[in-house]
Amino acid sequence: MTAFIKQEAIEKAREIEIKANEEFSIEKSKLVREETDAIDAAYAKKFKQASMTQQITRSTVANKTRLRVLGARQELLDDIFDEAAKKLAEAAKGKDYQKVLKGLLLEGMYALSEDEVAVRVRKADNDVVKKAAKEAETEYQKETGKSCKVKLDEGNALPEGTSGGVFVVGGNGKIEINNTFEERLRLLQSSALPAVRKALFGPNPNRKFFD
After folding, report:
1. Are 119 and 152 in contact (CB under 8 A)?
2. Sheet with 175-180: strands ordered across
3. What is the pLDDT of residue 144?
4. Is the dihedral of CA 33, 34, 36, 37 positive or negative?
5. d(CA 139, CA 106)
6. Half-sphere CA count of 4, side-chain side, radius 13 A
7. Inter-axis angle of helices 2-86 and 181-201, to 10 degrees?
8. Is 168 a residue whose pLDDT tops 80?
9. 70-104 pLDDT, tens digit each
10. Whole-angstrom Cα distance, residue 177 to residue 64?
11. Cα R_g (the chain), whole angstroms
12. What is the reported pLDDT for 205?
């Protein structure tokens, strides 16, 4: 009887030990899985943060590079038009200056379509603009069948610092057409800039729409 009880106790103890070992293994696996999941989550978070940091860095570098390139391009374009502005005065010294003034006068005369217009020029251009005005009056009448008198406004001469060209005034002094060399270059800079940029740097791959 004693041996039987002892054997039962041993078997019971073995069952308890087996069950405890199973529960320990289960708990251990659970803890290992939780720790593994936590490590994986932490790694994924750090990897995501590293990727985002890398993307931000790349984007920042790309933007800075792009801005430097754009700045250099704009500086080159500015230099081109600055150089052109320096050479404007040379056009007023050329043999075709009278012809140029006639063309600028005619533009104003056609635009205003009046019987008389006033013209303002530099004092240095008074003599040559008088000759150009005579030619412009003749051509205007020939082309339109109407006469238009060009009167030199000597009391309001353009500043001597002006490179050349004319101001054509109509509408009893209320309408002014600025046909000075500086204004024409400014208009050219605005209208021709896209073509100049394309000629220097090639077409913009990011541009989707064209005029």
Report:
1. yes
2. 149-152, 116-120, 165-170, 175-180
3. 93
4. positive
5. 8
6. 1
7. 140
8. yes
9. 566 666 566 666 666 666 667 678 889 999 999 99
10. 43
11. 44
12. 59
